[in-house]
Design goal:
The complex is a heterodimer of chains A (about 80) and B (about 375). Chain A has about 80 residues and is mostly beta strands. Helix content of chain A is about 10%, strand content about 30%. The chains are: A mainly beta (about 80), B alpha+beta (about 375).
């Protein structure tokens, strides 16, 4: 029963299982929203899933450009897309 | 100029200086062709920071920078280029630098520039990420951050629109009495030739010429996008001493917010290293110097670093004028701007064009005269 934690994605609370990736939590909280926004204004989606392409970048706890596909959720974590 | 000749002025080099000269000549009704060995704006123009900064330490440099900034603002393209009008903060670490900053403030104010002194508290609110133990900063409004290759490309577009030619991937083999010789063997007839090829100019000026230029390597790093991280272009006051000094290798802190939100970090100067690669140990020194002023800068993700070469003269001033002993007196030079080519390209073009057309330049051209090297050698 301890395996569910709560994080926030763009201010909205979402419950996820411990061990969930930040990129997955974003998808659960807001299906299709993706992660960062390109300089041209386009919404970007996680692509490689292995920390190379940088398309999953979000701000975590106020730190911009964190890789959502390489970061596990921690209880209370604040995640912002549109990084 | 000869109306029957195809080209009035053939310009060697399509960097910021060559392009600015080409544009000025085109506007004056001359037929211009630019021959660039690589791509427009690809050399020192692309490697530099893009800081348009009114340096005032030398009266001649100051006059050229002020004329240039006025001409940049009068340029039709000015309002539509990528540009961050941040102004500059000259950062003082010590009481001695604070005193030097006040002297600089007096000079700038006397010349009518907008500048003021920020004490430690004012500095903290103006630029919150700076170290807390600084003595203060001189804030100079009116300085800008732009993107060199874009400026060069826009000036080149003006030349094309005015009927001039821009030839890329067209290296020049030699200057001649009646034009120039391209590396592919093509002869280009032209009434005048202007050498504006930066460090590459050395290869082309007459044998035995007293003109002197040394490549001075510099390297820079740029981060990912952190919009709002900095509000001004930041330069340590020690930068001037480093820039004017003759040390083989020096590092001075310089950071800029780009329009993209990226942070550009500099700077280094090296005469000793002729290799084009980034020197990692020197880069580490630059980052440590940056951490002195921006203690948390290490949290930023560095995306890219690169090196380039500034064309440096012994007295730090550009060379603008007729090449002594060059051709039939129809060979000209405009280079040697070291790190100020972007800032002073427009003023350089104005001075050169006035000399070419037999007019009196808006500022005294003597400090930039090619003859000064011959006099120094004599």
């Amino acid at each position: 029963v301890n395996d569910v934690i709560t994080v926030t994605v763009d201010g909205c609370r979402v419950d996820v299982r411990a061990g969930t990736l930040v990129a997955a939590a974003v998808e659960i909280a807001a299906p299709g929203r993706g992660a960062r926004v390109s300089p041209g204004g386009a919404r970007r989606q996680p692509l490689c899933g292995m920390g190379v392409c940088g398309e999953c970048r979000v701000a975590i706890a106020g730190h911009p450009h964190r890789l959502g596909c390489q970061t596990l959720c921690i209880a209370g974590m604040e995640i912002l897309t549109d990084d | 100029m000869n109306a029957r000749a195809g080209i009035d002025v053939a310009i060697v080099g399509g960097g910021i200086v060559g392009c600015a000269c080409a544009r000025a000549a085109t506007r004056a009704g001359l037929r211009v062709a630019v021959f660039e060995a690589q791509r427009i704006g690809a050399g020192a123009t692309a490697a530099g920071m893009g800081h348009l900064v009114t340096i005032d330490d030398d009266p001649a440099e100051f006059a050229l920078a002020r004329l240039s900034m006025r001409l940049w603002r009068e340029w039709s393209g000015w309002e539509s280029i990528e540009r961050v009008g941040t102004g500059t903060l000259w950062l003082a670490e010590t009481a001695a630098q604070r005193d030097a900053a006040h002297a600089k403030l007096a000079r700038l104010s006397a010349a009518g520039l907008q500048a003021d002194w920020l004490g430690p508290d004012a500095l903290r609110s103006a630029e919150p990420r700076l170290a807390r133990d600084l003595a203060g900063a001189l804030r100079v409004a009116g300085d800008e951050v732009a993107f060199g290759p874009e400026l060069a490309a826009r000036l080149a577009a003006d030349v094309r629109a005015g009927g001039g030619r821009i030839e890329e991937m067209a290296p020049v083999a030699a200057l001649g009495d009646d034009g120039l010789l391209l590396a592919d063997g093509t002869r280009v007839a032209a009434g005048h030739v202007l050498l504006a090829a930066g460090c590459d100019s050395v290869r082309l000026w007459p044998a035995g010429s007293p003109l002197t230029l040394r490549p001075r390597k510099g390297q820079l790093a740029i981060t990912d996008r952190y919009p709002g991280y900095l509000r001004h272009a930041l330069v340590e006051l020690g930068y001037i001493a480093a820039a004017h000094g003759d040390d083989d290798e020096s590092v001075a802190f310089n950071a800029q917010p780009r329009a993209s939100g990226q942070v550009l970090l500099g700077s280094s100067r090296s005469y000793a290293d002729a290799t084009p690669e980034v020197d990692a140990a020197l880069l580490a020194r630059m980052v440590r110097r940056a951490q002195r002023f921006l203690p948390a800068v290490g949290e930023l993700q560095m995306l890219r670093c690169w090196a380039g070469f500034r064309p440096a003269t012994p007295d730090g001033r550009p060379i603008i004028g007729r090449i002594p002993g060059g051709g039939r007196g129809n060979q000209w030079v405009a280079t040697g701007h070291e790190g100020l080519g972007l800032t002073t390209a427009t003023g350089t073009a104005s001075v050169w064009l006035d000399l070419l057309l037999g007019r009196s330049p808006e500022i005294d051209a003597a400090p930039y005269a090619p003859e000064r090297f011959a006099e120094a050698a004599a």
